[in-house]
Amino acid sequence: MREQKIGLKGTEKLDRTTQAAHDLIKAHHKARDAKTTRLRELRLAREAEEAKSVPTTKRRVPKKNEKQ
């Protein structure tokens, strides 16, 4: 008699493939969320820095005899 290879059953192979796909999707979501968080923090820091550096100017009040 020939020795048969003991392999995975059909559903076990499908389950492994499904799990691998889910793991890959989760990794992509995690990486995307980390990038989004990092970029948001950088944007907020840049906006805060720009708000500090914008000079405030006084509004010019027209003289009484000037035309508008």
Provide an overview of this structure.
It is a single chain. The protein is mainly α and 68 residues long. It has one helix at residues 10-53.
Features:
68 residues; 65% helix; mainly alpha
Layout of secondary structure:
Elements: H1 10-53
Strand content: under 5%
Radius of gyration: 32 Å
Q: What is the mean predicted local confidence, pLDDT?
A: 85
* DSSP strand tally: 0
Major β-sheet annotation: none
Into which percent range does the helicity of residues fall?
55-70%
Straight-line distance between termini: 107 Å
Tell the overall outline.
Answer: rod-shaped
Low-confidence stretches: none
- SSE ordering: H
Helical stretch count?
Answer: 1
Class from helix and strand fractions: mainly alpha
